[in-house]
Write a structure and sequence with these properties.
Blueprint lengths: L16 H6 L10 E8 L6 E2 L7 E4 L3 H10 L4 E7 L16 H12 L4 E6 L13 E2 L2 E2 L1 H18 L3 E4 L6 H11 L8 E6 L6 H7 L19 H13 L3 E5 L5 H10 L4 E5 L1 H12 L5 H15 L3 E4 L2 H9 L1
Parallel strand pairs: 1-3, 1-4, 1-12, 4-5, 5-8, 9-10, 10-11, 11-12
Antiparallel strand pairs: 2-3, 6-7
The structure holds ligand PBG.
Pfam family, one: ALAD
Subunit structure: Homooctamer.
Catalytic activity: 2 5-aminolevulinate = porphobilinogen + 2 H2O + H(+)
């Protein structure tokens, strides 16, 4: 009797790497990764970002060199953020024909045509107050900001962007962007909507990287409350109804349950943004020798995939691409 106990032995399928890989449920591949890049108009040399070791602000002149390295690693797409020389109340440089991102896109399309270019569409890097829309009486105006965001998206696409990613969290932006693009003959350009974007402390290092910290107040009047998940599904429905082609959850690691719910709730491709603070925490611990960076990063990204994300935007993309090769 005791000889046959237990019948069920889950360790049978864990005996060696060959058998483990045969029954593995989740895979992380380089073609699921998107790499964010910061382009600084004024810079002559790449500028280090103190809170994000290994990440740079790139001068326009060097952006294609870095993009070539990314493409050669097999990473299919980059997500662009611009740091303009001049900021004003209405973020004029965000939709200027020769703005930093518009120029970067033209260079990238000429030199690294196979790399997909996704652009972040949001005013906060371009406004002198650092908020994601225009301000009157101390509040970000929803409807007034929409037209500027649509102009920004159009200027990116006219310069050659492949996909636009609105991250401002104004109501109605996906519909307004879709309409603007369609009206100008760009009905084939997908919208990757930051549908479920929380007001998160994990964006801290990004605000140093992009110089986009709000000069007063915070973003809680437009980004979501970290406590809410039913509301996330309402945001999702709204963006789908307005014509989003892909939906995003951001940040990723504290919101794996939200990624799972979004995955179960819709059939669109789901993107997760492994944000700056999530990157910096791992880097800091690794630099102290407290964790095994490669192992931790692979485990974290696998957990984001397991939660239901099809794609991951991550500052670790070049490292992961190299690790997956070896
Ligand atoms: C722009 C934007 C932000 C991030 C992506 N797009 C900052 C914010 O909303 O405050 C954060 C990305 C990161 O932390 O890596 N609105």
């Amino acid at each position: 009797m005791m000889n046959n106990f237990p019948h069920v032995r889950l360790r049978r399928l864990r005996q060696n790497e060959t058998i483990r890989s045969l029954v593995r449920e989740t895979h992380l591949r380089v073609d699921q990764l998107i790499y964010p890049m910061f382009i600084a108009e004024g810079a002559q040399e790449p500028q280090k970002i103190a809170s994000m070791p290994g990440i740079m602000q790139w001068p326009l002149e060097q952006v294609t060199r870095e993009a070539r390295r990314i493409a050669d690693l097999g990473i299919p797409a980059i997500l662009l953020f611009g740091i303009p020389n001049e900021k004003d109340a209405v973020g004029s440089q965000a939709y200027a024909e020769h703005g930093v991102i518009q120029e970067a896109i033209r260079r990238l399309k000429a030199e690294v045509p196979e790399l997909l270019i996704i652009t972040d569409v949001c005013l906060c890097e371009y406004t002198d107050h650092g908020h994601c829309g225009v301000i009157h009486n101390g509040t970000v105006q929803n409807d007034e900001s929409l037209n500027l965001l649509a102009q920004m998206a159009l200027s990116h696409v006219e310069a050659g962007a492949d996909i636009v990613a609105p991250s401002d969290m104004m109501d109605g932006r996906v519909g307004v962007l879709r309409h603007m693009l369609d009206e100008h003959g760009f009905n084939q350009t997908p919208i990757m909507a930051y549908s479920v974007k929380y007001a998160s402390g994990f964006y801290g290092p990004f605000r140093e990287a992009a110089g986009s910290a709000p000069q007063f107040g915070d973003r809680r009047a437009y980004q979501m409350d970290p406590a809410n998940v039913r509301e996330a599904l309402r945001e999702l429905e709204q963006d789908i109804n307005e014509g989003a082609d892909m939906v995003m959850v951001k940040p990723a690691l504290s919101y794996l349950d939200v990624i799972r719910q979004v995955r179960d709730h819709c059939d669109l491709p789901v993107v997760a943004y492994n944000v700056s603070g999530e990157y910096s925490m791992v880097k800091a611990a690794a630099q102290n020798g407290w964790i095994d960076e490669q192992r931790i990063v692979m485990e974290l990204l696998t957990s984001i995939r397991r939660a239901g994300a099809d794609m991951i935007i991550t500052y670790f993309a070049p490292d992961v691409a190299q690790w997956l090769r070896s």
